Amino acid sequence: MENVENMEYNTTRNHLIMKEYGRHIQKMVEYLLSIKDKEERQRNAYAVIELMGFLNPHLKNVEDFRHKLWDHLFLISNFELDVDSPYPIPTRETLKARPERLRYPKRYPKFNHLGKNIEVVIDKALKEENPEKKQGFANAIAYYMKLTYSNWHKELVHDENIQTELSNMTEGELEFNNRPFVKHRTEREREEFSRNTGGYRKNFVARDGRPNNGRDNRGNTGNRNVGGRDNGGRDNRNNNNNNRNFKKRY
User: Fold this and answer.
1) What is the DSSP secondary-structure string of 17-58?
2) Model pTM greater than 0.85?
3) Taking residues 144-153, what's their average pLDDT?
């Protein structure tokens, strides 16, 4: 009966501050608070830090993991532990301090269908003094515009429309002199590409000209007369029997 009366229950224990370290680490920290000698308390604090790092080996992959261990030690002690730390000692105020509000970037592109980055490239192209580089900027911008249009629309856009829009964007200062080629997928090709993760396997054609229907020649189904179902695999069995007899004789 005496052992039953001395048993501890979680309902009678104090609050577990950090569950990652368990009840025993918290009891060790509470023992550190009861040590009056500062040198002995400092020595035992280093021992607790080593044990905390051993219980959580994943923290070794984190940058400044020992700094985290010391911060956790002070947090478990409710910021009452009086020891020297190699890192700045945290306080209750710094722990509960609210971070600054993250400002959402406010970018209002003039051409929503092309995005904000195209405006940066256009501004850089307009400031370029070298005519060859400026022409290269115009060709790259025209290709990007045609690629974007092809990705988001079902029909193919013509180069005249791209040139008209580019002239309106740059007030006639940029004109491309190439014919930007962009492979445009039809609606049927888009559906087939989304269904087939391996590409257009259904359109694969074998060497003899017959459609393969997405199948490969791993099974080698054309040579069924070699150890296959047609001859019951008798050739392979005879070879195995001959090998066994050869091993027994020699």
Assistant:
1) S-TTTHHHHHHHHHHHHH---HHHHHHHHHHHHHHHHHH-GG
2) no
3) 81
- List Cα–Cα distances, 162 to 71, 119, 166, 173, 175, in angstroms: 59, 15, 6, 14, 10
CA count, 13 A, side-chain hemisphere, 40 = 7
Cβ proximity of 190 and 155 under 8 Å: no
Strand partners, 188: none
The Cα-based distances of 37 to 43, 79, 82, 206 in angstroms read 10, 18, 11, 85
Q: How far apart are CA 14 and CA 12, in angstroms?
A: 7
Q: The dihedral of CA 107, 110, 113, 119: what is its sign?
A: negative
The counts of H helices and E strands in the chain are 10, 0
Please spell the DSSP secondary structure of 53-101, one letter per residue: HHH-GGGGGSTTHHHHHHHHHHHHTTT------SSPPP-HHHHHPPPPP
Tell me how far apart the alpha carbons of residues 221 and 187 are, in angstroms, rounded to a whole number. Answer: 35
Nearest of 21, 64, 28 to residue 47 by alpha carbon: 28
Largest CA distance in the chain: 98
Distance, CA of 222 to CA of 212 (rounded, Å)? 13
Which residues are within 8 A (CB) of 132 and not within 5 positions of it... i.e. 6 or more apart? Answer: none
Which is it for the CA torsion 162, 165, 169, 173, positive or negative? positive
Residue ranges per domain, the chain? 10-96, 102-208
Q: Is the pLDDT of residue 119 over 60?
A: yes
**Model confidence band, residue 187 (pLDDT cutoffs 50, 70, 90):** low
- The set of residues, in sequence order, having a beta carbon less than 8 Å from that of 51 and lying 6+ positions away, is 25, 28
